[in-house]
């Protein structure tokens, strides 16, 4: 483990019933980098993140953030955009944002001020008192992103972040990622969209059958594959098959 | 617990903002008010109609084989006396007489027969009213007031009973401890659905993963349960205050019995036991409903379990006489100690005074332990069921070793 690792995963194994989803997986994410957690559907990406965040209990191994298992009360300032996403549909936008802000450690006033400023930025200032269920899908995505980045997280974990996003929100997401990169935040990008990975990430891990098929900087991974693109490397690793 | 107060505040505020909360809360007092209003206006209408009936004039004849009817009473009604029943019936049929009353020799064994001109479903009652008046006026003068009270079954009684030489009134004593039984029933019937849906909402809205990275599952569940309890007490106040105010203002008009609270015996031990059993039962049931909600993917699926819980909880009400008369019966003992059926038997037996102190203490311990266990199960079900968006958790999965 390097001294600047914010996430450290060692010999992580995860079994559901008789199915071994992750098999002795080890890797680390360094502070301040943008890290790509890659793999096809069913390769174990989301399971790894859920175990890292304490949502799943690992079968074996250790998963730590800042040297200890993640704890909502004492852990890192986290911004997490899960793959399965949604918000309280029957509550008002501002109430939900303030609630999440408070859960993330902000005062009600600070959360309200920040939310109103964010809504202004994403052209939703007039929707603050509308119930979330009445917003369009794209507008709900903007609220979701806002909730994710509240309280200036030091670690952003984005699981399939562009899934279902329209081009406007995709651009917003990229801007947000870049802003947080500049502020020194660590970003973990869970995806199988290789184009975005190449543009944003410093290092990657490519999972296959719950194991690391590739791990390192993008340049090093490409070098091992004779300069092939990440798309081609992905196809090579999976042998042209999707595990889903 | 980290973020507990934030969760509790959020849950309470958003419930209070829901129209359904207020509709459910006010439905009961409004329903009670509507029932009493119907009774009140119905009484008024009946009374007015009765008065109008008595003022109606119609031709009447009587054949009295019993000899009960006094001539002066007949005279007061301007009624004729006929010799035979056949004559009276014929006159009515011909339309020459509005009403005819045939009083047989033995009215204890035979019915008084009334024949009359049809004047509508309500007004036809005038013949029976007049017959009743005719007979009672004829008889009343034969008795002194005391005998009359006996005949009319209007004798007032006052019962004083003693237990170990001390005067006690079992019915009045049951009122204050019995209040908790009514409160539990009201709370669960009006609030149960909301408890059940409280944990499915996060799953149905797919917000659970984001929530679980900001607050521990245990804190979220405890926060939901605490907010339910607070909302429950609030709802209780919303139900009771209009009922109490309504009673205070309208009990005379509605002919409700006057309750002098200062006359009610106050047994602090029984009231205390009732309160503790009420709180523990409420916690147990809330935990149970939250656990079911946590283990099922949607509120709709969770609702299918609601009937079973209600049956367990309120099924014992069908054996109410057994709890009062045979507290030592095996079935009563079982229902009193089995945690999911215990609340009603315990509260009822405590109210009527046949729950011994040691039994109350044992049952409290059982309820407290059960509540804790159910809450632990609720937390586990929530943790393991949090990401099950489309299927129910099995018991094996809930209790699986981590």
Descriptive notes:
The complex is a heterodimer of chains A (244) and B (402). Chain A is an alpha/beta fold and 244 residues long. In chain A, a hairpin with a 2-residue loop joins strand 8 and strand 9 (211-217). Chain A has helices spanning 45-52, 93-103, 108-121, 137-148, 167-182, 194-200, 218-224, 230-238; strands at residues 5-16, 19-30, 34-39, 60-65, 78-81, 155-159, 186-191, 203-208, 211-217. The model of chain A has no long low-confidence stretch (mean pLDDT 89). In chain B, the strands form 2 sheets. A 4-stranded mixed beta sheet of chain B has the order 2-1-3-4, with helices on both faces. In chain B, strand 5 and strand 6 form a beta hairpin. In chain B, helix 7 packs parallel to helix 11 (268-295) and helix 10 crosses helix 11 (268-295). The longest helix of chain B has 37 residues, at 19-55. Chain B is elongated. Chains A and B meet through strand 5 and helix 2 of A and helix 1 and helix 9 of B.
List keywords for this structure.
heterodimer, A: 244 residues, alpha/beta, 6-stranded mixed sheet, 3-stranded antiparallel sheet, 8 helices, B: mainly alpha, 4-stranded mixed sheet, two-stranded antiparallel sheet, 6 strands
